[in-house]
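User: Predict the structure for this protein chain, please.
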Amino acid sequence: MTNAYQKANAPGPEVGVSVADPLSIVNIIKKSSHVLLIIGAQSVVKMVGDRTYSDVLFEIGSKIKAEIIATAGAYRYFSEKGQAEGLSNMPLINVTDRLRDPSWINLKGEGEKYDLIIVGGFLVYYVSQTLSTLKNFTEYRTVSLDRYHHPNARFSLPNLEKEEWSKYLEVILSKL
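Assistant: Here is the predicted structure, written as structure tokens:
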């Protein structure tokens, strides 16, 4: 079992799974039919090889035809690159509140609810609160693609060194 990256993060009796094999994450994603990807501002400054983490997340979202929400800093990044079409812009706290609301369906307001929420590019302590809320007050399955283990995410990567994390994400991209 992987320890939480943030030592004081006590997740309660239910602890998410640390997924060491990227192919397992690929299978989890492929089995989902309606995915929401939430991209945080930290993804703009983190690099995965020679690309920003936000570009990697965007490519994952595009490959799986996920609905994508980018928080303010990430949305600005995509806007400046001319890639904001189809993206929604919303603060993480508002996304969390909507996902917590049982009457909220999805961004379009029609169709089916999400069956998987993927997050990436947030400060550890900030996204941990969102993942805790989703774990304890909703039925959503969650995946964190950050390089630190999030025990409140149903599925999370183990704590990885930067190079290991880059390879892990490249495997995901190549298999989706």
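The first helix runs from residue 22 to 30.
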